[in-house]
Specification:
Elements lengths: L1 H9 L14 H4 L4 E5 L2 E2 L3 E2 L4 H8 L7 E8 L5 H11 L3 E2 L4 E4 L4 H15 L1
Parallel strand pairs: 1-4, 4-5, 4-6
Antiparallel strand pairs: 2-3
Helix pairs in contact: 1-5
Length: 122
Amino acid sequence: ASAVAQGVKAAGADVELLTAAEFDAGKVGQYDAIAFGCPAMGEEALEEEVFAPMFESVKGALGGKKIALFGSYGWGDREWMQKWEEQAQNAATLACDSVTCMAEPDADALESCARLGSALAQ
């Protein structure tokens, strides 16, 4: 999330970092673009306790918004991101390709996140 925020700033836009618990449908209108980040959990799914309910609740308010998705996974083949992208494309406009990495992001993944932030700010 910090690398995404750095990319947004480098593109000359303002950025605010919020956790899933701090974000809801009422806040969607305050932003021109939104990056959502979530790791894969369990059976390659979005985190179920906080993130998935938040994302489900904001999908209806995302119409016309540019969004971007990023996250990490521990095993599998990115299936969770493919499912998430399908959900997101039905709700909003994806500003760029999603960014995923296995486990902790390495230098390449961090650079990809910065590019995601820059693309989102355009």
